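ok so I'm stuck.
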Amino acid sequence: MAIERRTFLKAAAGTLAAFGSARGSERAGPKRKLGLIGCGWYGMVDAKAALEVGGVEIAAVCDVDSEHLENSAAEIEKLQGARPKGFKDYRELIDVPGLEAVIIATPPQWHALPFIAACAKGLDIYCEKPLAYDIREGRAMVDAARASGRVIQIGFQRRQSEAFRQAGEFVRDGKAGEIVQVDVRIHYRAGMRDAKPQEPPASLDWDLWCGPAPKLPYSPNIGHFAWRLEQAYGNGHLVDWGIHLIDATRVILGESMPRAIQAVGGIYVFKGEITTPDILTAHFEFARCPVIWSHRIWGAAEYAPETSNGIFIRGTEATVFATDDRWIFIPRGKGERRTIEAKTEPAAGVRHMADFLEAVRTRGPVACTPADAFRSTATVQLGMIAYRVGARIIWDAERETIVGNPEAAKLLKREYRAPWKHPYAG
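replied:
not stuck anymore, here's the structure
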């Protein structure tokens, strides 16, 4: 973990230089050919970030929705002057001659198979978080990445946040004293769409969209973008959004994975609309200190809304609060609190993409490897497993299994829907 942390700090410190190098390479030589798998909202955010960094051409795009495919191809053509080839099946995209790297920005049930196929093709990969839908998929992906030897970055963009970086240095320098507890939260009001089962849009191949996951009746509340709060696809707010702050917490603390996890909550407000908790508290027992996650997605009108999204690090000498663009430390006793504004420029997503493209150019390290992304992803997945079984679960990190709870251990792997086959062979 110490090696991972040093790699992260080195990568974060060099991101601006990487951005300049990538822009320089755009002027100096041929552009690297990228493919985009999943070109909805965030897929296009990633594609635009790559084009902003420079030195690349989006040569091909892939999506199971023909409307997404057409709109993204047209927008990319306006941005880069050349229209990318369009495909419905990722297996056709990765066969495009001259392709050097792919961006994977699909819902989580479609991360593992394209990722492993791209590794086998010898392509570099930028894959969005979470690493995988289930923990066994994640292990298969880490093994494939290691065997391929390719440059692979996972989309934990907050590893580029100046505020989290500075707060982390403050904590690691011992200025907050011994850390005794960390509280992590993202409270917000979720926007609900129509949850009534209905026919999918004519442009959308719903069967292929569901892929290896269960095929539920389509509704706008579990389709594009809204899948995040559906257990079968996004697995809830902790896994979808909270994972960013759990990852940032792990980096700040220099921790690997928790040894025990318990979680309580439920669906109290959005009954019949979502299948993951709208209120949840999860207790992660890391070696250094407990980390407590909480969320409420039915109301963001906080008494102190400025702290509704962030990390409280509570030490014997000071408490530190960190969020995307600022951090605050409050000394014990009568010391004066201090707020440090730390806006990330360019934006964290662009910096993270620049870090990846620089690593592609130099074959150097990235800010977030698949192995480290596995730790953060598995941590939040274990939180949801603990919630589902209603028990405190023990995680054996060396054997990567849940000890003494067969019901929970079964949830480490979800069987695939035919004809797809789960990639984990262990």
